[in-house]
Design brief:
Blueprint (H helix, E strand, L loop, with lengths): L16 E7 L28 E13 L3 E6 L4 E7 L4 E7 L4 H8 L3 E5 L19 E2 L8 E3 L13 E5 L7 E3 L6 E3 L11 H5 L3 E7 L3 E4 L13 E10 L9 E7 L7 E10 L10 E7 L2 E12 L9
Antiparallel strand pairs: 1-2, 1-15, 2-5, 3-4, 5-18, 6-14, 7-14, 8-13, 9-12, 9-14, 10-11, 12-13, 15-16, 16-18, 17-18
């Protein structure tokens, strides 16, 4: 460390941390790469695709849980060599904003979209019962504009959330356009529900404008232009549930903005929500504003998964 009076103190100063997440390809376990050599081109207010800005976070903490041991030898049992035990690292933080991705990361398993119910009733269920029929998305749709045809777009309203994805057709494995949203072990496990993929998909957008034949979304869908055969349904709520056999995986970038001229970035190629095994885990935190009002933040605890750096193996 230099103590030269000609060199300014290297003390990073920041106001808050910002969190950015991007999907991991579950078929290949390939993460979204962040190259620190290009960090200067990473625009915080408009991150490059597929990174998604999840807003400000608080109480950011990193834990290094990898033990190091010593091999001793000789009459005085002096240290002769060192070795590392099981590698483990964790990150914990509070989301200051709520949204589907924030809730999913705080929950950790499948995150359900509650689809608008059918007007004729149907079978109720804790994560949403029989939904209104899906509306087919037509050719010519983009990530920001969904074409439904003349008059059909009136089935939606400005401000509504809509889930856009394919019908479930009996497939097993990961489902969800763009981002693996769940893992189906058998068609019977999801009751062969044709709406199941839209119940779990991350391909959700908010309607900003309605035209004669289409709806315009506030932000592009995470999976890009809808696949051929996709359909849309209105989402009225989200459901976070305990348990489940599905584990999410995300690439993550945490950035301390540069108040003193330097940007500090914490990059994890693969993270999975995992609260660990010790003690109780706080899901939400209530911060008193002024009685009786409190702000509710979502607590996330994630486990770092391994990735091989090609520069040194």
């Amino acid at each position: 460390m230099s103590t030269s009076p000609l060199r300014a103190a290297m003390v990073p100063v920041t106001r808050q941390m910002r969190a950015y997440f991007a999907p991991v390809n579950r078929a290949t376990e390939a993460p979204t790469i962040f190259d620190p050599g290009l960090s200067g081109t990473f625009a915080l207010d408009s991150p490059p695709s597929p990174w998604v800005d999840l807003g400000w976070i608080e109480n950011f903490e990193r834990w290094y849980d990898t033990p190091a041991g010593v091999v001793r030898s000789g009459a005085k049992t002096l240290p002769a060599a060192q070795f590392r035990g099981p590698v483990e690292a964790r990150v914990g933080f509070d989301f200051c904003e709520w949204g589907k991705l924030q809730m999913a990361l705080a929950g950790g398993s499948e995150h359900m979209n509650v689809l608008a119910p059918a007007s004729s009733g149907g079978s109720p269920a804790p994560s949403g019962g029989t939904p209104a029929a899906a509306v087919a998305v037509l050719t010519g749709s983009t990530a920001s504009e969904l074409v439904f045809g003349t008059g059909v777009a009136s089935a939606f309203a400005v401000g509504e959330l809509i889930a856009v994805d394919l019908d479930y057709a009996g497939q097993v494995g990961y489902v969800g356009s763009g981002i693996a949203a769940a893992y189906v072990s058998s068609a019977a496990a999801v009751r062969e529900d044709p709406n199941y993929v839209r119940r779990v998909t991350f391909n959700v957008g908010r309607v900003a404008e309605i035209t004669a034949t289409s709806v315009i979304l506030e932000q592009p869908l995470l999976a890009g232009a809808p696949a051929a055969g996709a359909a849309a349904q209105v989402v009225i709520a989200f459901v976070d549930r305990e348990g489940g056999s599905f584990f999410q995986e995300w690439s993550a970038l945490f950035v301390a903005e540069e108040e003193s001229g330097g940007r500090v970035c914490f990059y994890y190629p693969r993270l999975s929500p995992n609260p660990g095994t010790g003690g109780k885990f706080l899901r939400e935190d209530f911060t008193l504003i002024a009685k009786p009002c409190s702000a509710i933040s979502l607590r996330a605890s994630v486990l770092a998964l391994p990735y091989t750096d090609g520069n040194d193996g």
